[in-house]
Design brief:
By secondary structure, the chain is of the alpha+beta class. The chain is built from 4 helices and 6 strands; from the N terminus they run βααβαβββαβ.
């Protein structure tokens, strides 16, 4: 718990584990998705609170096996009204990364508990 009894805010990034791209390209996919999610949800109070303390941002980078699993996760989040951005890399038109908006960890961690850290 954070000061004041509030849950720690966290942003989840979910990358595809099957992409055999250079490390820099994969990092860029996460950066694109995270930046886009923060921009899309910039008026959200949790996003504003997350960005108000840049030195204490918490981000968890996880992986799914492939594009099918990434799309399935996106469908599950959409069904539960969890805000996210699914990054589609162009010109390849390939879904590479999903980034949530910042949420209290307790509110969304169950959606990601089965995933492994991206290494």
């Amino acid at each position: 718990m954070e000061e004041g009894g509030k849950d720690q805010l966290i942003q989840y990034l979910i990358l595809r584990g099957d992409l055999k791209w250079p490390v820099g390209s994969l990092v860029a996919q996460g950066a694109h998705a995270a930046s886009a999610a923060l921009h899309i949800f910039r008026e959200d109070s949790e996003t504003q609170r997350f960005l108000a303390d840049l030195d204490r941002m918490h981000v968890c980078v996880l992986k799914v096996p492939d594009e099918v699993a990434l799309s399935s996760l996106a469908d599950q989040l959409k069904e539960k009204d969890i805000g996210f951005k699914l990054w589609i890399e162009q010109p390849e038109n390939v879904a590479t990364c999903l980034a949530t908006k910042p949420y209290p960890k307790s509110a969304v961690s169950s959606f990601f508990a089965h995933l492994k850290l991206f290494r």
